[in-house]
Write a structure and sequence with these properties.
Distance between the termini: 53 Å
Number of helices: 9
Radius of gyration: 20 Å
Helix content: 25-40%
Shape: globular
Structural class: alpha/beta
Strand content: 15-25%
CATH architecture of the largest domain: 3-Layer(aba) Sandwich
Number of domains: 2
CATH class of the largest domain: Alpha Beta
Largest sheet: 5 strands, mixed
CATH topology of the largest domain: D-Maltodextrin-Binding Protein, domain 2
Number of strands: 10
CATH superfamily of the largest domain: Periplasmic binding protein-like II
Amino acid sequence: MLKLLLGSLLLGTLLQAGSINIAVAANVSYAMEDLKYEFNKLYPNTNIKVTLGSSGKLTAQIKNGAPYELFMAANMKYPEALYKDSIAVTKPVIYAQGSLAYLSSKKLDFSKGIKIVEDSKISKIAIANPKTAPYGKAAIEALKNGGIYEKVSKKFIYAESISQTVAYAVTAADLGFIAKSSLYSPKMKKYKKGVNWEAVDIKLYTPINQGIVILKNAQNNKEVKAFYDFMLSKKAKDILESYGYLIP
C-alpha cells in the first residue's frame, strides 16, 4: 500500500514537471536568473528555457513559427501586432517600464546631459538598431529631442540588441545608449554612476512600456499561465525594480 502511494506521488510529480519556452527581450537578461529562481520556488519541477534577442527579431521568429510560448518584449508594439494577428492569445499588458542610460569605460563629465555625445572625446556611439530594438528607437528620440541628432548621427555604431550595445559601449565605442537595467548585472559593478554611466533624462524620450503575452502555442498550458501570472505579481515587480526598471 505504501509503495502504491509513493508511486502515485511520484507519478503526480512527473506529470507536473514540464518546460516553458520563453522569448525574452535582451534587456531583461540581467534579471531573468532571479525571476526564474523565485518562480522555481513555487514550481520547482518547471524548466524555463529562455531565448534572448531584440524584440523585432523575436517577433519575426514567432511569426515564422518559432515554438515560443510566452513573449516578454521590450515595448508594446510587437506584442500588440502579434495579438492583432491572433498569434498571441492574451491582450498585451505592461510588466515593467525600461529606461535609458549612457555608459562608457572612460571617465566622462555627465553633467553635460545629452550634450555629452557632442564631446570631441566621443567619436563612436553604440546604439541598438532602432528598426528592431525599442531602446535604440528611444535613444534616437532622446537625441532628436535634445536637438543634436544630426550633429552626431555619423558617430553611430549599430548593435543588433541591447546586450550587444553594452558590449560595444565598453569596447568598440566611446559611449553607448543602453538599458539602465544592464548596469545591475554583477559584471557591471566596476562602472560607477556619475563617472562611467548616468541615466538619460526621462523627459527626452517616451517611457518604454514593456509588454508580455501568452502565445497560441501555449493556449492551454497551465505552467505558462503560472509564469505569466508570476511576472505580474509583486514579487516579480520587486525584482524588476531592483534591476533599474520603473514599475507603472
